[in-house]
Design brief:
13 helices; 69% helix; Heat Shock Protein 90; alpha+beta; 3-stranded antiparallel beta sheet; 9% strand; Four Helix Bundle (Hemerythrin (Met), subunit A); 5-stranded mixed beta sheet
């Protein structure tokens, strides 16, 4: 027995797996972007710190400044002892160059930004630049000027030592500050990495759960699909069995019924002599009418079962539509006259030929016109019209002024054994298969039927054949 699933048991989510995969990819991309941003920030800050402060440059400039001062003094001592004056001038120029480097070089901002260094430089710089005049006097032979230069140079030793000590202190503070910043950045980097990977793991876990749920739902859906397929096959088999049974029973009923009708007709005509009592003639008429009605019902059931069983094959030919309509009107003319319903023919003079099954076309027309007669009261009218459509198809329309149908009745009118106005249908008789059979037959011709109706305003039924079945002739409209 097929399993039964409650509607809430399976909630298929066709895009669940794709959505989870997209979210996972987005998290991975976000992780890479976040780590890239953090790393880029780290290297940017590191490079900025390096550009803002280079301890080696500061130390180098300060130490070289002091070394040049010492070299200048040694050269001065040699000059006082009879050495070369050009060498003394060269060392003095180098000393001025080192002073200029400190004031305008890469480390100038550090020197200017440190008050203690600025005080020392304000003391050293005027003294060094003031040596230029005394150096010229010494070169001119003023030995006292040379002694004065030596004394002033020795007096600046303590200031140069303080300058180097101050530079070292600033360098230590800057390095400690840089380490603190980088340490904070390291912490942020580690925290970002941990949070990111936690998110990745969380989404991976959610994705795995979604995969397992999807696999479970897919398995259950496959099982349900298999059950539904089995149920469909069983239903089709039951439908075929029913159709075959109805076809067989209809055939078995129609054979003896035809015999009853034949014998009753012989008795009514008195082929073997008159009937003894005149009242029997009325009974025989009742037998013939009831038998013909029963035979019509059996034929409807047989046709419906053959259509549903797929055993109805088309015998197609190019038909004259006007002739087919006239033949159908001739067959129902007596019935319409007996009920007092006027049949109106609104057909063009020329119509194209139609590729169709002649018997089935006649049956469709008879079903529609008979239905219209059945539900049109005395004094009403039925109009039969036909025309070629703009797309090349052919439409045959049957419009009556009968009782019409409500929207609810109109929705159910193509269901087998369903009848629009049940009370009038019971009064007029019928199986309720006329319109369902007509729809199956027009669909066999690749066409369709349109039905429109309003209560107490009549009904319009239109058969539409596709352009592939229309054979246009010269002069056709």
């Amino acid at each position: 027995m097929p399993r039964r699933f409650s509607p809430l048991h399976i909630q298929p989510q066709p895009d669940a797996l794709a959505g989870a995969a997209r979210r996972f990819v987005l998290v991975l991309v976000g992780t890479v972007v976040a780590l890239s941003v953090v790393l880029a920030t780290y290297f940017y800050i590191q490079q900025r710190e390096y550009n803002r402060f280079s301890f080696q440059n500061v130390i180098w400039d300060g130490v070289q400044f002091r070394n040049e001062h010492q070299a200048y003094r040694i050269s001065l001592l040699e000059a006082l002892s009879g050495g070369s004056l050009p060498d003394l001038q060269q060392h003095y120029d180098l000393l001025l160059g080192r002073l200029q480097q400190i004031e305008t070089g890469q480390a100038a901002d550090i020197y200017r930004g440190a008050p203690e260094l600025q005080v020392l430089l304000q003391k050293i710089e005027p003294a060094v630049r003031g040596w230029s005049g005394r150096l010229a006097a010494f070169a001119a032979g003023d030995r006292a000027a040379g002694q004065m230069l030596l004394t002033q140079s020795q007096a600046l030793d303590a200031d140069f030592d303080s300058l180097i000590a101050g530079v070292n202190a600033i360098g230590v503070r800057r390095l400690e500050l840089s380490r603190e910043r980088l340490s904070g950045l390291y912490t942020v980097l580690i925290a970002a990495a941990i949070v990111t990977w936690l998110l990745v793991l969380g989404f991976a876990y959610a994705l795995m759960r979604q995969l397992r749920a999807t696999e479970l739902a897919h398995t259950e859906l496959q099982a349900m699909t298999a059950d539904l397929e089995q149920a469909r096959r069983e239903a089709e088999e039951a439908s075929r069995t029913k159709s075959n049974f109805l076809a067989a029973m209809s055939h078995e009923l129609r054979t003896p019924l035809n015999a009853v009708l034949g014998f009753a007709d012989i008795m009514r005509q008195g082929l073997f002599g008159p009937i003894g009592n005149a009242r029997y003639a009325d009974y025989i008429d009742g037998i013939v009418k009831s038998g013909q009605h029963l035979l019509s019902l059996i034929n409807d059931v047989l046709d419906m079962s053959r259509v549903e069983a797929g055993k109805l094959d088309l015998s197609e030919d190019e038909l004259d539509v006007l002739q087919a309509v006239d033949e159908a009107l001739d067959l129902v003319g007596v019935t319409a006259d007996g009920k007092g319903v006027a049949l109106q023919r609104a057909l063009p003079a020329v119509l194209p030929r139609l590729l169709a099954d002649e018997r089935l076309l006649r049956q469709m027309l008879l079903n529609l016109i008979s239905n219209a007669i059945k539900f049109t009261p005395e004094g009403g009218s039925i109009e039969i019209a036909a025309a070629v459509l703009t797309d090349g198809g052919l439409a045959i329309r049957v419009r009556d002024t009968g009782v019409g149908m409500t929207d609810h009745q109109l929705k159910r009118v193509f269901e087998p054994f369903s009848q629009g106005d049940s009370l009038r249908a019971r009064e007029a008789g019928g199986s309720g298969l006329g319109l369902p059979i007509t729809r199956r037959l027009i669909e066999l011709h690749d066409g369709q039927i349109h039905l429109s109706s309003r209560k107490s305003a009549g009904t319009t039924a239109t058969l539409i054949f596709p352009a592939t079945r229309v054979r246009l002739l010269a002069g056709a409209i």
